[in-house]
Every structure is written in structure tokens, then in C-alpha cells.
Amino acid sequence: MKYKVYILLLFACVTGVLTAQDTAVKFEAKVSKSELGVNERLRIEFTMNKDGDNFVPPSFAGFQVLMGPNQSVSHSWVNGKRSFSKTYSYILNPQSKGTFTIRQAEVEIQGDIYKTTPITITVSEAVNDPNAPPSANEIAGDNLHLVAEVSNSSPYLNEAVSVVYKLYVSPRINVSNFVPKANPTYNNFWSQDIRVSRYQVETGLYKGEQYRYVILKKTVLYPQKSGKLEIEPLALEVTVDVPTNRRDIFGGRLYNQINKTVTAGKRTLTVKPLPEQGKPAGFTGAVGQFNFDVETSKSDLKANESLTAKIQVTGTGNLKLFELPKLILPSSLEVYEPELVEDVTTTLSGSRGTKSNNYTIVPQYKGKYPIPSVAFSYFDPVKGEYNTLTSQQLLVNVFEGPTNNVDTADTGVVKQSVGADENQFRFIKLSTTLSPKLTSVFFGSTLYYLLLLLPLLIIPIAILVGKKRAEMAGDVIGNRVRKANKLAKKYLSVAKRNIGDKEAFYESLERALHNYLKAKLKIVTSEFSKEKISELLLESGVENQVVDDFISILKSCELARYSPSSKAAMEEDYQRSADVISKIDKQLKK
């Protein structure tokens, strides 16, 4: 029995040693805060997960060392696994305002030298109480970040750039709700939003620390001018639960709830113009990677039968922002205006799909008609050069029909000659079977007496209509109700057509509400806040409840762009908007 105990202890020690050897070496530096006042103190810790020797701290330039190094070592066993931690800590005091870098610390672990990552510290004006604990607002600000991730900060003109807005939340706090406060505008960009159907919480690193994050919005931008272009920020009002040191009677931690406004900040893109050197003569602005082809639905047919010639571009790029080359055909072919067909989807890498012009062609005469080759030019932003693709020449064989005396290979604009045909005017009748028509006497006929009595019948009808119109004109309340309902339908007609498409519906609904205010109050609502709009409506005699309902619908429009919404909810918001517009129109001072 005694030997078994020794064997088990030896086995445990060997297992612990092997486990410790398998763990990767970590040596990192952490600070209590990255921004502080000049009269505050900074705590910095250098932590390693293996025992090391010959620790060399950085110089701490710009700071005075008030305390340290303080060394602490901890051992723990969790589920049979041993963990080790050794920490050197310092208390520093900044000597002046500015931005300082705490350089690398070094330590020797198992014969190898490990270094920490440099840390940047910003020292600002003195704070009122440097020893006071951080407020809930400060804690939320340090642990909540809204970031706009741009795929390419230096694109070419018309090159796709994706912008992904992410809300990063530290595990130290909780977020219970958020509402958009300012949506970004994309001046000088052609933009396409990618729908975010639902918010999915994921984990990732933000400035080297573990965070939870949610993707709020995805947009693909195509810059329309060169130079430095700014992307205005997205701003959110977030409800944050910040933990406190207090606990309830059951031992649970108590939280302070605050509203925090976060913004992604402005982003600036440096847009490069497309090079002039090597630009093809037929270039129409296509930027991306494309394939090009021209094809016909048939190559052999009879005269007066139709065929389709398709000019098609397939690939990835600004498919909706350039024109396709035109098809030039012999004048002996009757050609109709082309039909534009687009099958394009948008992803974070840009728009991809197919764009084509379909020409309907009807040959009039027998012969062989060449369809000349067509050239398509585009700029490849990856290679930084222009490419020109040329289609093959096609031949259309009209094997049956009248003969034309004009050369079928002619591609210029030539009037067609008309050939004589003995059956050409067969539709003209040369002999007729006309017969005389009997005439009747109008005087004394039924039609005569009907026309004679008709004025007598119209007089009482006119009197009744006049009385009805006078009653309607005197019904002031009824007229105002009908006028208000008509006005509501006018402004909300576009929104009603978009029910089922969340983004289009709420965008058109919000535009309808603003256009209504613009028409009734003679103001530009984009220059006013919701508080200002409420004030103007109340001054115009609108009841408080109606004003609150109007502002509530505006907030719903903003919130619905970032949250799922059903068709039933859209129909309910539409009806609410129609009712509110009708009520406002009846209550506004005339």
C-alpha cells in the first residue's frame, strides 16, 4: 500500500512537469489605463506564465517610479492541471502631458529571451480627484467601442470598398439596448447596403484584449471622385449596465444603468484616379475583373424571322456604373432598342454577376450577314492596368427570303431598297359590293322625343347635385377629415408599395414623414432634431399625444433598420403613420 502511494505521487509530479512544458510561454504587459490625467497614477504589470530570470524593466521615460518592482508568484491546480504566474508590478507617476511609449521589458525563460509589446500612454490635463474610483460613464467608455472597419483606405476611382460597423463590448459590462443616433452619409460615393438579417454575438480581439462584438451594418462603397473623401461616422445611443462593488441580499452584484453615446469616428479614404496612360478609346468606366462575350440565339434563319444578339459582361466590379459597348450591324438588318438585363448581387468583395444588352434582330432579305467583333475595356485595380477583351466575329445566314441589291456585308447607314412584288398590294380591294343605305325620318322618331325631354330630366338632377355639393362645402369637419386622409395617402403611397422590404419600407416611410412636415410647416426637417420638431408641432396647435406618436414613429424607423421586422409590424407602422398624419393635418392651425 505504501509503495502505491509513492507511485501515484511520482506519476502526478511527472504529469505536472509535462503539462507545464506543453504550455506555451507568455510574457505580456498590462496597464491600469491607457489615458490618464497628469496628476493620476499608473499601475503597470509584467506577467509571465513560466518562471523566468534576469528580468529587465523598460526605462519608463516620461514617468517617475513611485513604487516597484513588487514581485508576486501564484500556483494553482484546476482539474489536475497546474498553472503558474509570476508578476512584476510598478506604480508610475507621469511627469508632463503628452503621449508616451513604455518600451519593451525582457526576461529569460528556459534559456530564451522574451519581450513584451510596447504600450502607448496618453497623459492629459489634471483631473479633479485622481484617487477617486472611475465613474460608471468612464468604465463604459473604456469597455465599449464602435468601430468602422474599412477594407481598403486607398482605392482607385470606382473600386469597391467595404465598410463593416462593429460594436465591441468588454466582458466587464453588459449592453441591454442600442438605438441609432446618427446614420452615416456617403457623399461622393455610390453605396449599396448589405442586409444584416439578425445580430449574432461573436468573440474577437480589440487592441489585444478579448471582446464580444456584433456586426451592425455592412456597406459597399464605390468612390465617384478622386482625392481625400470622408465617410461620416455612425453614432449609437447605448444602454449599458456597469457593475458596482455593491451586492443585493442574495449576494448578487448590483449594476448601474447609464446611456452612453458611441461613434465610429470619421474615416478618410485617399482615392486614386484611374491612370490616363494606356486608357483605351472605348473605356466607359468599368473597374474590376470581368469576362466578355457576344453570342446569338441562332445563326441560320429565314427572312422576317427574329434572333437575339446578346452582349454580356460577367465578373466582379462596378457592374451598375458603366455602359456596355454598342453592337453595330449591317443596315439590311432591322434592329430594335436593346433590353438591359442585370443579375447582380452585392457582397463585401463588391458587386458580382452578369450585365447584358439583348438586341432583337429581324433580317429582311436573304444573304449572309456578319456581326462584327466588339471590344470591351476595363481597369483591373489589382494589377493596376487596363484590359481590352474582343469578341469573335459572328455570321448570320438568312437562307430564304427576298433578295436585296445592297451588299449584305455593308455596316454603314444605308437606306434599304424596296423590291417590286406582284403580290405587294394584294390587300387593296379593286372590286366592291356596296349597297345603298335606307334613310329614316328624324322628325317624330324616338330619338327626337328623347332629345326633346332630356333637358327636363337634367334640371332636377342638377339641383340635387348642387344641394349635395353645398352640404359637403358646409361640412368643415368632414372636409378636413377627407383632405387629411388624402394627404396621408399621398405621402405614404411609396412606403405602402415597399411593405415586405424592411429597409426600403422604413426609408420611404421616414422620408414621407419628413416631406409631410416640410410641406405643412415650410421647414427643412433634416436640419432639426426630434426635440425641435416636437416644439414646432406643439406651437402649431397639435396635441401632445399626437406629437409623441409622431416622434415615436420616427424612432421606430431608425431602430427598424438595425433590428428584424416582420411584414405585420410594417403594416402596423404604416397604419400608425397614416393616422398620425391625418390627426396632425386636422389639428394644425390654419
Describe the secondary-structure layout.
Blueprint: H1 2-22, E1 27-31, E2 35-37, E3 42-48, E4 53-56, E5 63-78, E6 81-94, E7 98-102, E8 106-109, E9 112-115, E10 119-124, H2 136-143, E11 144-150, E12 161-169, E13 174-182, E14 189-194, E15 202-206, E16 209-223, E17 227-231, E18 235-247, E19 253-263, E20 267-271, E21 288-296, E22 300-302, E23 307-317, E24 333-335, E25 339-347, E26 350-363, E27 367-371, E28 375-380, E29 385-390, E30 394-400, H3 446-474, H4 476-497, H5 502-521, H6 530-539, H7 544-560, H8 567-587
Parallel strand pairs: 2-10, 22-30
Antiparallel strand pairs: 1-3, 3-6, 4-8, 5-6, 7-10, 8-9, 11-12, 12-16, 13-18, 14-16, 15-16, 17-20, 18-19, 21-23, 23-26, 24-26, 25-26, 27-30, 28-29
Helix pairs in contact: 4-5, 4-8, 5-7, 5-8, 6-7, 7-8
Helical residue percent band: 25-40%
| Secondary-structure-derived class | alpha+beta
In the predicted model, the low-confidence regions spanning at least 5 consecutive residues are 14-21, 408-421
> Total number of helical segments?
8
How would the global form be characterised? flat
Q: Measured on Cα atoms, how large is the radius of gyration? A: 39 Å
Query: What's the N-to-C terminus distance?
Result: 103 Å
